[in-house]
Model the fold of this input.
Amino acid sequence: MRISTKFILLIFTSVLVAQDAIIINDGKYKATINRDNWGVPHVHGRSDGDAAFGLAYAHAQDDFKTIQNVLVASRGMLGQLYGVKLKSIKGFFDLLKGKGTGVKGIENIANDYYVHVIGIWDGLDKRYINEVPADVRDVCDGYAAGINLYVKDNPKAAYKKLYPVQGIDIVAGFMHRTPLFYGFGGVIRKLMRAEPPTLIGLGPEEEKDPMQMLASNVIAVAPKRSADGYTRLMVNSHQPWSGPVAWYEAHISSDDGWDMVAGLFPGSPVGFVGHNPDLGWGHTINDPDLIDVYHLTINPDNENQYWYDGNWRDLEVKKTKIKVKILGPLSWKVKRDLYRSIHGPVLKTDHGTYAIRYASMGDLRLIEQWYRMNRAHNLIEFKKAMAINAIPMFNTGYADKSGNIYFVYNARIPKRHPDLDWRSIVPGDTSVYLWTEYLPFEDLPQIENPPGGFIYNCNNTPYLCTDDPSDFPDRLPAYAGVDMHQTNRALRALELYGQDKSITREEFLRYKYDKKYSQESLVVEVLRKFIKDSKTIRKELKPGIDLLNSWDFSGELENRAAALGFLTFRHVGFNPEKYTYDYDKIVEKLAAAVEFLTTNYGRIDVPLGEVQRLRHGTADLPLAGGPDMLRAIYTKNDENIMKGVAGDCYVQFVEWDANGNVRAESIHQFGASTSVESSTHYDDQAELFSKEIMKLIRP
Done:
């Protein structure tokens, strides 16, 4: 892995040598956009609103289509813009009845129906003025203005019926996507099946929605744990590499003191993860129970009344029309009745009527909380921002220039009645079971400056986020649904960082890129059981069994068993609580893996780097690592390769010396221009990413 001196020089001068700046101005907002040699935008404005204005314009230059799709989706206009394709005349009549059979693109209508069901826009104009603080509105309005200016400058790229957008659209976008982050769409699909579900939430065999979060790591060490007295933070998200929840990097600054190098999603005016000169944080995905479904008893004499506290109560009923493009200029309006009970939005199905209640339902403070986190300068201010507790999920790991480290299992957990199993559908006929409060933020699992000087989370239980289990003697109620498992990444973090009492800079980075399965991991457990059960497996698969049996559970480029291992076991996932061992399914996966490798490479012992690839633009590069490894790589078969589609993506490595001076590096799996294929920056970070090297982002 030889790298030229010129390449190294480019990596570490990227923030010092900027391209020509552009100044944008719409008469109200004004910003300067500088791009470094990697195309990363460094936007600056006099005010924070100006900075958000510049951020929106820069992001639109790099990925306008995805931003526009986010805005269209939150308006409930996907059906109007993209429409559906009818497979037959019958499909048209099914559409009139609100059915999706025979209709391609039904997900567009489903999104628009979802927007109406949860009532994003109900009274939002007044609420935006009354409930969103003026400084947050200025950031949202500035961001919207930046999108509008881009549309004015590039009218052919825009869906004209959408514009101009306003700050309220940005807030609506967060209200739209946040419930989808934790599985709201899957709950609706379950309720609409022919039979009522026995379990609310994602089951072992069910795929996540495109908007649902995947995984992440965050690791921090305090000066007492560093060999050189530095404080270090690794922000290491594992998201899809494209789409509405793929990361974008930007440096946002203003004369008012905003100075954030951040990862964010399309449509966001603030950073979700990253650092400012004083502090930094990363999020990881957690899985608290945030959605409840109530079964309503309906009046046999009035289908729009439900039994509640001894009386029949009227459902709120509202009619809506969802416009759907069918063919060219032809469109049709699908008429639906929308219902709401005291619990929340209501769905009527063939097997019953159900109300859904979910965390942060209708909360407008999501952007406010992330903005306050962006603007915090110390741990006290950061914890005050976190205590807003509008963001309903995401573990948060933190470090700062004063040497503080902090972890919190951030979640907005309903305070529920303890007598029910809230994983299932619960009775909706009494106020006894209607929750109206949340567990206090201070009761959430959290720790500040643990004695061991080390915190981590790799989508594992929060009760093991340090190297000492006794740091968390207390537990939340069972109804909170707190994660209790250990992932392989968590096990390896403990085996590496957790066992090293004096971690050098080089070790900190090397551990992050570890490519091994722990002997205690789920994958190793499942593989060993499968090998034991395979003594009578059919003859043509025995060479595959022998290769798997010889595997050292490594994901290095040269490893000759890893490709077969990943292809056979990547469906296992990383949560033992959501995996059910199925011998026949593993045999099926092994047979498919053997066929794939034999057909494309003539053998099954192919070095991993030949088959597991980063392919994007002009880049076609080897990828080490694998599912649920600290160097996390998730793949799908694409032609003759295992193509990277998720996992390690946007990574920040931040460190503060003993005097509080900050230095930071980062990497993106592709480049800054995430959707403009003609741009140099569409894939120019891919080689660094493949070689596990980061670029300087804050010298």
In short: The mean pLDDT is 93. The chain has three domains: 5-77+107-191, 215-287+367-419+437-511, 522-698. DSSP finds 19 helices and 30 strands in the chain.
